[in-house]
Amino acid sequence: MSSSADGRGACLPDGAMADPVELREERPGDADAIRAVVDEAFAPDATVGPLVEAIRSSPRYVASLSLVAAQAGRVVGHVMLSHADVEDTDGVCREVLVLSPLSVAVARQRSGIGGLLVTGALARADAAGEPLVTVEGHPAYYPRFGFLPAASLGIEFRLPSWAPPEAAMAMRLSGYSRTIHGRLVYPAAFDDVVEH
User: Fold this and answer.
1) 119-158, pLDDT tens digit by residue?
2) 53 contact partners, CB below 8 Å, separation of at least 6
3) Nearest Cα to 121, choosing from 64, 175, 172?
4) How many C-beta atoms lie closer than 10 Å to residue 140's C-beta?
């Protein structure tokens, strides 16, 4: 099953057209549906659902950059960009974004919904003048959106022991400045999922 670039009109095996995918900001009533999609997508890892809720209740949450993909009125995907800091060797912190997590309902994976969520969130962040988005992600997936090895931009990650160095990526946006370099410092909401 495939989908068009905008996530609409995906042909189903029997030739019927799928319901269009709506990309929109998360609403207060979406919380339970988002949690269900995140829990399903990351099973058996039980730390990611609480991460979404911790970010949402933190001062680093950016409501306009927490997006859902809805199909036939049902949430089938979610992405969240929230603020973190990059601290240089002089202790100066500059605010950047972290893309985490990206979740798509298992039955709708590999249909373009994840890409729709990522491109939509990046476009909104860029339009808002944000400087940089970081991600700990699959090195075969995120480069298609413009992510580069974080080290090439002078950004250092403390990756979990299971993650390859290539999982540390970053993407420059319209507000980028070369003064942003140093160590990525995750906010407290990530304490249960990031190894220190």
Assistant:
1) 999 999 999 999 999 999 999 999 999 999 999 999 999 8
2) 31, 35
3) 64
4) 8
Task: Provide the whole-model pTM.
Answer: 0.87
- According to DSSP, the residues that pair with 81 across neighbouring strands are 99
N-term to C-term CA, the chain = 40
Q: What is the DSSP string of 11-60?
A: BPTTSPBPPPEEEEE--GGGHHHHHHHHHHHHTT--SHHHHHHHHHTSTT
Q: For residue 140, what are the contacts with CB-CB under 8 A and spacing of at least 6?
A: none
29, 49 Cβ separation under 8 angstroms? no
Name residue 154's amino acid: G
